[in-house]
Specification:
OB fold (Dihydrolipoamide Acetyltransferase, E2P); 688 residues; alpha/beta; binds magnesium ion; binds adenosine-5'-diphosphate; 23 helices; seven-stranded parallel beta sheet; 4 domains
């Protein structure tokens, strides 16, 4: 007899290879198998009638064999014609078969088969159904519960998975699976045992539609438990961090006052509030880990600059890491504008620098001469040795994984303070669950005077209209971005396509200066062009999506995005954020190729309806799910066994309620819950 805690290798027929595959998907012991829930079910509990089935249904059918035929036209096939007592027929088609199988089909015999109903000009068909021959006298060979279908992993078959999970379920019936929810109020929830039994083998009278929609009480119970486990684990991380020591900064205002006096604008309340929140973290002796969220153009940079100033005034270095070279260069420019007049020394490190320049920057970083270090992934490299790193700022969290973030933290002597900035606003309910280990500041207010960008969708064939609009905009002295969203695999092909668009625009806008920028160009050439565009020397900038993030030219007031249907909501919103930065009313034209898919239509429509990044993010979550948006690495949420934060967000209130109850329980009980659901920590099982 097995125990639920037995390693899976104890199962008959499960060898080291299968063990490895299952371990890779988080299954180490029998209990973990119980939580590998079916993705869907097959109904073999009743026989379907041929005149009632629909094409596309999976159905269990019992009929008489009429005729067997082997054909070898284009492809060798075995055809088996079946019929019921009426006049309905069904054709079974096999492309792979052997002689034994063929001989087994005997005219007049009864066969039971299960498969998807298809239709052809000959009528209804099934291809490669599961089947069994029914001998005379055998009547009811029906399943008592629905048959589960499990997600598989390489080289493991459905039948094996079913068998192993079946053994785990048998073991469950004689075991005591600790039920973490038993004594936590609400007793109307099914027990863990009930819930697992139901979900692996729903009874005929269970509400299958509820199960298909993840609304069945058995699922809700597991979802709530899993989300509680996730939340507790993140809160543990947070606790651990709060117990670590960091460098306490004394909040000073010598440098910040100088900057404030030189600014041509006033900080918004939201900016000031974020700065205060950050300062209070920096002044504590525990490491800060704060997420700074703000829509594109909300003014995150100055908030980051203020945090850096505190590091500098306390004798520490601060580093800012950006996901792309262009964005790093933008930060260099932005930070230099504010900081060079104050005499702050800034180092810059990217992957494309030459050896001499690189060595020079590395030395500046190592000696402590550089007070601020701006760069890309290059900052992770082993040769980068900081003198006294006190603050790490990461821009665009979702482009880096949590492990990369940590590797930078390890470059400091003492756990440094960390600020993570993101322009992808995340709905609050999600932040609390997905980022429960981070504190959060939100810049929920744009600088005054901004006018929302008017957004229009136009078919690609309306280029004439767009050309007219460009002429009109440029006569008033404003500038235009034309973004080519090309799906060519290589940057070389993308550049070629963009070149064609560039020619077209040059021909049709003879009196204007139309310049092309793309990723294949030398970086010096790119920065020259960007500088010219900033100075207003270029009217129309034709670009690939290299301008996606961070570019700031306030005089640009028209953005044209070609083939906008190919981009995701967040990317379109980021692109559109390049205009509407000044005080002039701006326009964004989303050109698209007909016919639009349903989801592309929904995306473009959302953009037409709102400029609010939080609303767009919510919509994006609904359309795409959290994994793609929040990234798979930095949180566990994309790898959950049953819960889906977006789909199940209506349960989050209960999750918070139960998490609170759990926090009152012993540490052991909390840990038991976490280890049940979060199995990525392979260390606890050894490396066997
Ligand atoms: P993002 O949040 O997208 O990084 P930036 O920090 O680049 O935004 O700021 C966008 C623009 O808004 C910049 O030109 C910046 O100078 C300007 N800005 C920032 N804060 C304010 C403010 N409080 N009032 C007016 N303009 C501001
Ligand atoms: Mg920015």
């Amino acid at each position: 007899m097995h125990q639920l805690s037995d390693p899976i290798i104890a199962l008959n027929g499960l060898g080291p290879k299968a063990q490895q595959k299952l371990n890779a998907i988080g299954i180490f012991n029998l209990e973990h198998l119980l939580f590998h829930l079916p993705t869907h079910y097959q109904d073999k509990t009743k026989l379907a009638k041929l005149n009632q089935v629909q094409v596309g249904d999976e159905a269990l059918i019992q009929l008489t064999i009429e005729r067997i035929k082997q054909v070898s036209t284009r492809r060798r096939q075995l055809l088996c014609y079946l019929s019921d007592s009426g006049h309905q027929g069904l054709l079974l088609r096999f492309f792979h078969f052997n002689q034994y199988q063929k001989q087994n089909f005997v005219r007049g015999d009864i066969i039971q088969c299960f498969g998807e109903i298809k239709i052809s000009k000959n009528g209804l068909e099934m291809h490669h159904p599961e089947y069994r021959l029914i001998s005379k006298g055998q009547t009811h060979l029906l399943e008592k519960t629905l048959s589960p279908i499990y997600a598989l992993t390489a080289n493991i078959h459905q039948a094996q998975m079913k068998k192993w999970i079946g053994i785990a379920l048998e073991t469950l019936q004689q075991s005591d699976l600790s039920d973490n929810f038993k004594n936590l109020a609400n007793n109307s929830m099914p027990t863990l045992k009930q819930a697992l039994n139901t979900l692996h083998h729903p009874k005929v009278n269970d509400n299958i539609e509820q199960i298909a929609n993840f609304k069945h009480p058995s699922q809700q119970r597991l979802i709530i438990e899993e989300l509680c486990a996730q939340r507790l684990s993140l809160l543990q991380l947070k606790d651990k961090r709060k117990s670590e020591k960091s460098n306490t900064f004394k909040i000073k205002s010598t440098l910040t006052k100088k900057i404030l006096n030189a600014l041509e604008f006033q900080l918004t309340q939201a900016q000031q509030r974020s700065i205060d929140e950050i300062n209070s973290d920096l002044a504590s002796n525990h490491p800060m880990l704060r997420l700074l969220q703000g829509d594109v153009g909300s003014g995150k940079t100055i908030v980051a600059v203020f945090a850096c100033l505190q590091a500098i005034e306390n004798g520490f270095q601060a580093t800012i890491m950006a996901p792309t070279e262009i964005l790093a260069a933008q930060h260099l420019q932005g930070f230099s504008n504010y900081l060079t007049p104050l005499g702050v020394n800034i180092a810059f490190l990217t992957g494309s620098q030459g050896a001499i320049q690189r060595t020079e920057q590395l030395e500046k970083i190592n000696s402590g001469e550089a007070q601020i270090i701006i760069g890309t992934h290059a900052l992770f490299q082993a040769q980068v040795i900081f003198d006294k790193l006190g603050l790490v700022i990461i821009d665009e969290q979702h482009k880096f994984g949590v492990h990369q973030r940590l590797s930078l933290v390890q470059k400091a002597h003492n756990t440094p303070h960390q600020l993570v900035m993101t322009a992808t606003p995340i709905p609050r309910s999600l932040t609390m669950s997905a980022y429960a280990d981070l504190d959060c500041s939100v810049i929920d207010e744009l600088p005054p005077g901004r006018k929302p960008t008017k957004t229009i969708a136009l078919g690609n064939d309306k280029k004439d209209k767009v050309i007219e609009k460009i002429k009109q905009i440029c006569t008033t002295g404003n500038q235009v971005y034309w973004v080519c969203t090309l799906i060519e695999e290589s940057e070389a092909l993308r550049a070629e396509s963009a070149t064609n668009t560039h020619h077209y625009l040059q021909e049709n806008l003879e009196e204007l200066s139309v310049v092309l920028i793309h990723g294949k160009m030398h970086k010096d050439e790119k920065s020259t062009i960007m500088a010219q565009f900033s100075k207003g020397q270029i009217d129309v900038l034709v670009a690939t999506t290299v301008i996606e993030v961070g570019v700031n030219v306030t005089n640009a007031s028209l953005m044209v995005i070609e083939n906008s249907e190919r981009l995701g909501l967040a990317q379109l919103h980021q692109l559109r954020g390049r205009v509407g930065r000044g005080t002039d009313a701006s326009i964004c034209i989303l050109m698209y190729q007909v016919p639009l898919s349903h989801s592309a239509f929904a995306r473009l429509n959302t953009l037409r309806q709102t400029n609010d990044g939080f609303k767009i993010a919510q919509k994006d979550l609904e359309l795409r799910g959290p994994g793609e948006i929040l990234g798979t690495q930095q949180t566990g949420i994309a790898n959950m066994k049953i819960a889906n934060i977006v789909r199940d967000r209506y349960l989050l209130k209960q999750v918070h309620f139960y998490s609170k109850q759990f926090l009152k329980l012993s540490k052991d009980k909390q840990q038991a819950l976490i280890t049940r659901w979060i199995t990525d920590d392979k260390s606890q099982y050894g490396n066997t």
